[in-house]
């Protein structure tokens, strides 16, 4: 049985694909010995480390759009328009009170210290303080205060937090990147196949056509403030992810496009988990073929 360090990324509702990734790993005999998570990855990883993964799946798979809206406690205070108490209370009721140091596996939730501009690795203390700090998306979910420090979403600095796993003695490190340009799976060092000249010309022509547009009178609808904020955050995370993954190379990366779902579409949990399961299966099948297993 291969042991793994699992790195779960930041990405709002599309992070629910990570449920499917975990399911595939467990179904195929992998042993998760440590988890490092950021934002939604910290949430899912924390629930798994607390031994309540199946209960969480049953709950989140039943959520409908109205349920998600009811869990959204609007709050026009400083730092964000969602307070976050309702969803955290629901999770506390599901999981119970937990201290990180008492969990069955090693666990790190990554947040951002707003005033110091530094990463904070929560590896002890209250599990839900760590999760709440890690998921505090700027301008959306209010910042969280722990021991007098103000924390926001860890994705601001490290959307794919591999560094906390570097000291692990596991067989492999598996990372989930939720800020890719397209949903695919590959080994980290795999190079894309070269395009033929005709394919290159075709793609260039298509790009120019898209750039120029077919209708000069086309009216472009500008996105709203929240959409602009979320898309800007996603683009920033894409750039940071590329840098982090180049610095710390995991053995396997599962990649999911940043437009796979909107940030708030948590009612699509089952659909997204199924996508995650299939991508994990395809990745590991390809890796086995490459290694002649």
Descriptive notes:
Strand 1 (3-8), helix 1 and strand 2 form a beta-alpha-beta unit. This protein has one domain (2-185, 222-291): Cytosolic phospholipase A2 catalytic domain (3-Layer(aba) Sandwich), CATH 3.40.1090. Helices cover 40% and strands 20% of the residues. Helix 1 crosses helix 9 (269-290) and helix 2 (40-49) packs antiparallel against helix 6. Strands 1, 2, 4, 5, 7, 8, 9, 10 and 11 form a 9-stranded mixed beta sheet that branches. It has a two-stranded parallel ribbon with strand order 3-6. The longest helix is centred in the C-terminal third of the chain and has 23 residues, at 225-247. The chain contains 9 helices and 11 strands. With 293 residues, it is an alpha/beta fold. This is NTE family protein.
Short overview:
40% of the residues lie in helices and 20% in strands.
Q: What fold name goes in the CATH topology slot?
A: Cytosolic phospholipase A2 catalytic domain
Round the Cα radius of gyration to an integer and report it: 20 Å
Strand percentage lies at 15-25%
Largest sheet: 9 strands, mixed
Classify the secondary structure makeup into a structural class: alpha/beta
Low-pLDDT windows of residues:
185-197, 206-216
* CATH-derived architecture: 3-Layer(aba) Sandwich
Which CATH first-tier class would you pick? Alpha Beta
Which superfamily, in CATH terms, is the homologous superfamily? Cytosolic phospholipase A2 catalytic domain
Number of domains: 1
The overall strand count is 11
Query: Which percent range fits the helix content?
Result: 25-40%
- How many DSSP H or I helices? 9
Shape call:
globular
| Overall mean pLDDT | 84
How many angstroms does the end-to-end distance come to?
Answer: 15 Å
Question: How do the helices and strands follow one another from N- to C-terminus?
Answer: EHEHHHEHEEHEEEEEHHEH
> What oligomeric state best describes the polypeptide chains here?
single chain
